[in-house]
C-alpha cells in the first residue's frame, strides 16, 4: 500500500463526508467516549468514483499480499458490499459473518460457502478497538478456515486495537488511517494545524479527555 493510496482514499473520505472531524464539538460514541471524529464508510457506496478506488485498492491489496486466498469474507454489515465487489474483481467466492447466529432456519452465523481448510481474507470497513473483527476472525477459525489477514478501509490505529490484533495473530492492512486523514484534513483546511496534536492525543488514549479544550 503506497502513501499516495493512503492520501487519495483519505481525501475521498473527507470530500464526501464519510469521515468528519470536529475537535471543538466532539461526537459521543455509544460507549460514552467523546470523539473528535465521525466515520461512516457506508457513504462510499453512494459515490461511484471513490467506491471504484476503494474496491480496486482492496482487490489489489489482496492480489499482492494474499494471492493464495480461496475466498473473501465480509464483516456484517458494512464490510459485506466491499467484500462482494472485491471478490467479484478477483473472481473469488464470497461470504460474510453475522454479528451473531440466526435464531431461525439453519441458525447460520457464516453465510456463503466456506470449506474447512480454505484460506480466507476478511474485508472490514472500519477498525477502532478491533474487537468486532477479532470476533469475526475467531468465528471463521472455529469453522475450520485459515484467516490470512484483514483488509480494512480505515483504521484509527489505536494502541488498544494494535495490541489486541497482534495478540490474536491477526494482520490488518488498511487503505488509509487516522493519521493520514488528520494531516489531509489540515492540508485541505478542514481543521487547524494546531488541532493535529489534540487529535493525536485522542488516538493515543481515547478515554483521556484532556485533548478537549
Largest sheet, strands/sense/barrel: 6 strands, mixed
Mean pLDDT: 93
What is the helix fraction of residues, given as a range? 25-40%
Low-confidence stretches: none
Spatial strand order of the main sheet = 7-6-5-8-9-10
Terminal CA distance reads 35 Å
Could you spell the SSE succession in H and E letters? Answer: HEEEEHEHEEEHEHEHH
Shape: globular
Kindly estimate the percentage of residues that lie in beta strands according to DSSP.
Answer: 15-25%
| Rg from Cα | 17 Å
Please give the count of helices. 7
Total count of strands: 10
* Structural class by secondary-structure content: alpha/beta
Could you list some keywords that capture this structure?
213 residues, alpha/beta, two-stranded antiparallel ribbon, 7 helices, 39% helix
What can you tell me about this protein's structure?
- With 213 residues, the chain is α/β, with parallel strands linked by helices.
- The chain has helices at residues 3-16, 48-65, 79-90, 131-142, 159-167, 178-187, 196-204, and strands at 19-21, 27-28, 34-35, 37-39, 71-75, 94-97, 110-111, 119-127, 146-155, 172-177.
- The protein has a six-stranded mixed β-sheet.
- Strand 5, helix 3 and strand 6 form a beta-alpha-beta unit.
- Helix 1 (3-16) runs antiparallel to helix 2.
- The chain is globular, with a radius of gyration of 17 Å.
- The termini are far apart.
Give the secondary structure arrangement, pairings included.
Blueprint lengths: L2 H14 L2 E3 L5 E2 L5 E2 L1 E3 L8 H18 L5 E5 L3 H12 L3 E4 L12 E2 L7 E9 L3 H12 L3 E10 L3 H9 L4 E6 H10 L8 H9 L9
Parallel strand pairs: 5-6, 5-8, 8-9, 9-10
Antiparallel strand pairs: 1-4, 2-3, 6-7
